[in-house]
Queue: 3 jobs
Job 1
Amino acid sequence: MPDPYDNLHEFAARNDLEFNEPALLRMALTHRSYLNEHTDLDWEDNERLEFLGDAVLDFLLAEHLFLSFPNAPEGELTALRAALVCRDTLARLARNLAIGPALLMGHGEVETGGRERPATLCATFEALVGALYLDQGLSAVSAWVLPMMDGELTGARAEVIDKDPKSRLQELAQGRLGITPRYRTVKALGPDHAKTFTVEVTIGETVYGHGEGPNKQIAAQRAALDALEHSADWPRPAIED
């Protein structure tokens, strides 16, 4: 019986990947549906590698952004990292690598468009990162991933900088906590023609930031910026189903 995995070597060579342990590459490109249809095979699907790769990407990009933008506030760095590791970005990189055609995937999954499904492509990219990390360590992942990410960074940074703090906070809060921020005016001092408003922003039951301004809109933007600048210290409140 011909080896159905010969094309993995071609995929690796085309994408500047070289594995000391080819079984890790095979696992990274194995969708669980393939093993469901081939129960005699004795290796894992890529879901555990996806978990590892997600963590490696988070750390690698946090370090890269920290060193690349020494004057950027924490909120901007967090938003940039979120833009680079989001599903759409990773799926786009996966398409550029032609991951979809290389996937070992069950026939039913293929017939329903699995090779082009963004969530699957994103997960497989993360699995490849996890496999490369196990095979050769962080330096190899960095050499392979960062040139691709630098190609995405210009657009991501322009998008982050162009967004107002409220929009950035909403994306971060929904992504990290699954909750939409709420704004409340807590104080209005001074005469009608020169009032100063104080607004607080809450996510769930927690107050995350305060801001003052000559109107409620500006105060709310400053409250959002305050929350973004301290987002590293955010607690992780339990979220009800």
Note: Residues 11 and 102 are 7 Å apart (CA to CA).
Job 2
Amino acid sequence: MIVATLLVLLGAIALAFSAALLAAARRRGELKPRREAVALGAVTNFFDTLGIGSFAPTTAYLKLRRLVPDGFIPATLNCGHALPTVVQALVFVHLVRVDPLLLGACIGAAVIGATLGVPLVVRLPVRGVQGVVGIAMIVAALLYAAANLDLLPAGGDALALRAPTFAVAVAAHVLLGALMTFGIGLYAPSLILLSLLGLNPVAAFPVMMGACAFLMPVSGLRFLRSERIDLAVVLGLALGGVPAVLVAAYVIGSLPLATLRWGVVVVVLYAAALLLRAAFTSSRAAAAAT
């Protein structure tokens, strides 16, 4: 019953977000998707479905190609990847078994965290966004490297958590939901946390994907009202990402993910260095002007 309710709610939220996105793009004259963003959305969401993650590689590409200003990155990520992530959640929540109560509680917690995080992101100075996202990308690169070196927890075989670990998981997802609005991906830290608490890592997939699928459209509705967003890029990411998720669902496990992660580590670290340098330069210029 809980799972069925979540799926119905997710579908309704996705429809509402889609309508709001198209209306906002039409109003701002950005209804034509960027073709480069379509290709980017296809690639990043394909590998996101395989567990690589989409935020860090997308941020790296946006930064390296200068497709959007740095201050636009969090909103563009959350809105552009929202609909592909909804499709991921619909697939994994339906197919993978996990405790429905844990699933619903972590989703609700992540949405609460995202609701609290959006106002902070839209008010944060650009150099603050650059610094936060740059640090987040370094953390993401370290997680990719740790996965390749088998340093991450293997996890247990449980499909449910009991008190007090249940409460720890729920509370942590409030924080992870807030960090998502800054462009800090939830997948890796959620998977690590749930595995450390004893949950089967496979069972963690519907939890982390469901949490992102709910919080991204919800936070996206508020990001769409912000001036710091490029809706042509957002539409491109969504259009490329949705079919890529469906294709990826058929090839899970057949690609050399370790090799791909090492490539992502190099690119992400380079982009992180650019963001942090920009943040440091902006801070130094602001200090010199005062």
Note: The chain has one domain: 2-289.
Job 3
Amino acid sequence: MLAVQNLEVGYGQSRVIQDLSFQLGGEEILAIMGRNGMGKTTLLKSLIGILPSRSGSIKLDEKEISSLAPHERVRGGIAFVPQGRMIFPSLTVTENILTGARGAIEQSVWDEIYAVFPVLHEMRKRKGGNLSGGQQQQLAIARALISDPKVLVLDEPTEGIQPSIIKDIAKALKEIRKMRKLAIIVSEQVVSFMMEVCDRALVIERGRFIHEAPREGLDADKVKALLAV
């Protein structure tokens, strides 16, 4: 569904992502693990087009998107849930979700979102700023889903979320994958969440992948050691 080849991304004169390549299968959940400052967010922002890549290829469903603007990539089928959620606090839950829409929304799409996140239906008229952190995270995911993506990209969705809600988010992502038949990339530092949700994990350090394994072959202690270095 997504193929990245020899990607290079940076800020000014610095190179953050260096000659990086990976593929994402259809309906696969891929976790990208790494310490702060190792390139996770830079990589995800380059996939969505917020940061332009200096070189390399990004193909979404076999179509080259590396030269497209962010809104064009969204139209092509990639959606982004940013770190920190970035919902609109003065808008209602429904209005927040609608900011991610690309046109008319079928009732079945609303039904699917509320089936995964029933609390959003209960609070659909409440201001986004009055929701808890976990509820705001669910809202940010719902806003991304309303665009009917082929690939959902999430940047550290467990940040600032209490442990009980982290489990709910892991469950929701698996339900979304099954319901919408999409692929998911999630950057993360919480190993337990990664082990719960992913099919495969990559560990990034200084803009390069240093470890890869399917969930069945993952050594959680090794991953924790790599993240602790």
Note: The first helix runs from residue 40 to 48.
